[in-house]
Specification:
The structure holds 2 protein chains of 2 kinds. Chain A is mainly alpha-helical. In chain A, 58% of the residues lie in helices and 3% in strands. Chain A is built from 14 helices and 4 strands. Chain A has a two-stranded antiparallel sheet with strand order 1-2. Chain A has a two-stranded antiparallel ribbon with strand order 3-4. In chain A, β1 and β2 form a beta hairpin. In chain A, α3 runs antiparallel to α4, α5 runs antiparallel to α8 and α8 crosses α10. Helix content of chain B is 73%, strand content 0%. The longest helix of chain B is centred in the N-terminal third of the chain and has 33 residues. Classes of the chains: A mainly alpha, B mainly alpha.
Chain lengths: 413, 198
């Protein structure tokens, strides 16, 4: 980041989106060793640094996937998309390669669920549209349950404590039971925001959470088969299916009548918004310098796309973008909000685009659930009688038994 | 400019790499004042992590025995698992006595977790037979034996003879575990008709 821009960000706590140019696209570049830097420490890095790294990987991944889809439908934009996409690919590489190799796929999974919980909870509280806030709270309670199931798997399969990754910021408790999260696809669709009336922050929130859920879905599909344990393979298959539902939910809240260029503009603005949120709160100076550099890069991308928007749509980007960025996403523990949401809304279910009490859930979802769970439920089996204890379930010795591998094992005092 | 080789690349990263992590959180740094004590706690954390994973490894083996057509001494395997649990608590108490927190993952605990990952994969794979499974357990027991031996040495260096004595009992049990697993595997591999499970 240029010093002037840094000062501007810190001093005003905001950023003039339309008049801050950033680094021009043609001046953005990398080398292999620039991309492959020393990873963060799994043990010493703050959990929120990990959370930001994972989220920003997801944000860049969504940028790439959107860019490819857009290129397939817009011949005129292909060259510009390809140029910016190459930079974003390398941004994603640098970010994702910051994760350390001693973080196992299961430990990384725990971190992914922590991202989903902490970021979605922060967004739900900031979201001005009450319906969309409810959508986020609905998804939040499901990811919260995934964290509990995966923590049980980690303890019972590997003998490891998930709190090493969570660092005490996030509770390990049951949420809306994963077994009950399987719905008919129609009951995963939600009402979109209206592009004309939605505030910019609403659009940023939708893209941010969509990006996070999409990368989680991809990640589970990729790493599920790496496990030898059949329970782990089953659990990843089950939770990946819910993540697919979540991607369906979150992409449906985005107004489908936005043009391709409008969507591209919003993606770039969202990247600026997220790098800004990260740079503003990052405690690790080495990582903060990456957020600042990429904030400058994204401002360059945004400016480039603003020019395309004017050229092809003959519209003013100010119609779509706010002059100033909304308040940043808050990277602080959301424990109390999650507990409150859990207490009030765990029994909510979905009927098409509306949320209903448990007893009003549509027959189509009950049927779907009954069929997919008819040969057993991996998420129930893995967490049967599981209660998180610091240092692992083995510490339940005082209670006379520990649970493992489907039976209760008594051991010598 | 000389072309890079695999060796030069690796050397460059190795020379500039930060460590895996710290032995203890900052608030504990007044308790573990000497290098010897910090090293001991790091290795105690390693054994603690290994014993806890060892419990899960043996549970997986016992489960597999139950599903196997082979006549295997599951009672002895259960006894070994119970001793791994005892060792876990022994280590936990020792770490507390030294003023450290047993729930904190030390760098060596983290690294042994990476090293054990392959063993867990072999043991929990539904397709591996009992001989392949026990071979993985043998690797674990060999490591465990050497680990306890080293812990006793470190305790003596730190003039913690009481702790060393308590660890000797665990070390003797670990030596017996190794003998059991070696014998089982040898018998399985050398007795005609016993190695192939169909």
């Amino acid at each position: 980041m240029t010093i002037a821009l840094l000062l501007q960000v810190r001093a005003s706590m905001s950023l003039d989106l339309l008049n801050t140019k950033g680094i021009p696209v043609k001046k953005q570049g990398f080398t292999w060793k620039d991309l492959v830097r020393a990873p963060i420490s799994k043990l010493d890095s703050d959990a929120y640094t990990k959370i930001r790294i994972i989220l920003m990987n997801g944000i860049e991944h969504e940028a790439l996937r959107f860019s490819h889809a857009c290129a397939r439908m817009n011949a005129d934009l292909q060259a510009d998309l390809a140029i910016i996409r190459r930079v974003e690919h390398h941004q994603e590489t640098m970010i994702n390669w910051l994760l350390p190799p001693d973080m196992s796929p299961l430990e990384t999974t725990i971190a992914y669920e922590q991202v989903a919980i902490e970021v979605t909870a922060a967004v739900a509280q900031m979201e001005p549209d009450e319906y969309l806030s409810q959508v986020y709270r609905f998804g939040l309670l499901e990811d919260f349950d995934h964290l509990y199931r995966y923590s049980a798997l980690m303890d019972r399969l590997e003998g490891k404590d998930a709190s090493q990754i969570l660092q005490g910021y996030t509770d390990i408790l049951p949420g809306r039971p994963t077994i009950d999260e399987h719905r008919h696809p129609i009951d995963d669709l939600r009402k979109p925001y209206d592009k004309k009336f939605a505030l910019p922050i609403t659009k940023m929130h939708a893209l941010t959470i969509l990006s996070g859920e999409q990368q989680t879905h991809n990640y589970y599909l990729n790493i599920g088969p790496l496990f030898a344990d059949p329970v782990a393979r089953l659990l990843y298959a089950e939770i990946a299916s819910i993540e697919e539902q979540h991607v369906t939910q979150y992409e449906s809240i985005v107004d489908p009548t936005e043009t391709w260029l409008e969507k591209w503009l919003l993606h770039e603005a969202n990247e600026v918004y997220n790098y800004y949120s990260c740079a503003e709160q990052e405690t690790d100076s080495r990582i903060r310098s990456i957020w600042e550099r990429f904030l400058d890069y994204e401002l360059g991308h945004l400016n480039h796309v603003c020019e395309l928007f004017k050229k092809y749509e003959r519209r003013d980007p100010a119609e779509v973008l706010a002059e100033e960025l909304p308040a940043p996403i808050q990277y602080t523990s959301q424990r109390e909000f999650v507990r409150k949401t859990l207490a009030n809304e765990v029994d909510l279910r979905a009927d098409a685009t509306t949320f209903v009490p448990k007893d009003k859930e549509p027959e189509r979802s009950l049927k779907h659930r009954s069929k997919i769970n008819s040969q057993g439920s991996p998420s129930e089996a893995v967490a049967s009688d599981y209660r998180w204890i610091p240092g692992g379930e083995i510490n339940a010795r005082e209670e006379g038994a520990i649970h493992a591998s489907g039976d209760h094992l008594h051991h010598s005092p | 400019m000389h072309p890079e080789t695999i060796s030069t690349i690796r050397r460059e990263y190795f020379m500039n790499a930060p460590k895996v992590g710290s032995i203890e959180p900052p608030e504990q740094k007044t308790i573990l004042t000497t290098t010897g004590r910090r090293l001991l706690v790091d290795k105690l954390g390693e054994r603690l992590a290994f014993e806890r994973t060892g419990v899960r490894l043996y549970e997986a083996v016992i489960l597999k025995c139950g599903a196997s057509a082979l006549d295997l001494p599951t009672d002895r395997l259960r006894e070994i698992r119970d001793q791994e649990i005892e060792h876990f608590f022994l280590l936990q108490d020792a770490i507390r006595e030294l003023g450290a927190d047993p729930t904190v993952q030390t760098p060596c605990a983290d690294v042994i977790g990476v090293a054990s990952a392959g063993l867990l994969q072999v043991v929990t794979d539904s397709r591996t037979d009992m001989a392949q499974t026990l071979n993985a357990i043998l690797t674990a027991e060999l490591t465990d034996n050497a680990g306890w031996e080293l812990l006793i040495e470190l305790c003596l260096q730190e003039e913690l003879s009481d702790l060393a004595d308590r660890f000797r009992r665990a070390y003797r049990q670990e030596a017996e575990h190794l003998t059991t697993i070696k014998s089982l595997l040898t018998e399985m591999m050398t007795t005609p008709g016993r190695t192939l499970e169909s």
